[in-house]
Amino acid sequence: MMEEIEIEAIGIEVDSQPIELYKVLKIANAVSGGGEAKYAISEGYVAVNGEIETRKRCKIYDGDLIEFNQEFYLLICDNPVEEKVIAESTNKSPAPKPKKSEEKLQKPEAEDVSQPKSGRSQIKFF
């Protein structure tokens, strides 16, 4: 039988959701910067909803509980979830590529080496 316990959590209010986990730690001032947040997450020092999370860009939503450094943080967001809509691609086939026999490869013409293009004189090594 699981015993229910009460914990005190610090509320972190954000304007939009989802938000990446490392950003939540930065907003909460639990770390000094994004690099430190990413390191702590990748080393397994952060738990989300009671499970260790090692993904730095794990999406965090309203009501998620984050545990770090013996502190608890609760994400609070009144706005609805903003998921980016991926544009549906049309089922058009790509334009056919020309056959190699149709391609005409031209050799570049020999450049005149006596006239430098940049206006500088040439360097002579010998």
TrEMBL record:
<protein>
    <submittedName>
        <fullName>Urease</fullName>
    </submittedName>
</protein>
<feature type="compositionally biased region" description="Basic and acidic residues">
    <location>
        <begin position="99"/>
        <end position="110"/>
    </location>
</feature>
<keyword id="KW-0694">RNA-binding</keyword>
<dbReference type="InterPro" id="IPR036986">
    <property type="entry name" value="S4_RNA-bd_sf"/>
</dbReference>
<dbReference type="GO" id="GO:0003723">
    <property type="term" value="F:RNA binding"/>
</dbReference>
<feature type="region of interest" description="Disordered">
    <location>
        <begin position="87"/>
        <end position="126"/>
    </location>
</feature>
<feature type="compositionally biased region" description="Polar residues">
    <location>
        <begin position="115"/>
        <end position="126"/>
    </location>
</feature>
<dbReference type="Pfam" id="PF13275">
    <property type="entry name" value="S4_2"/>
</dbReference>
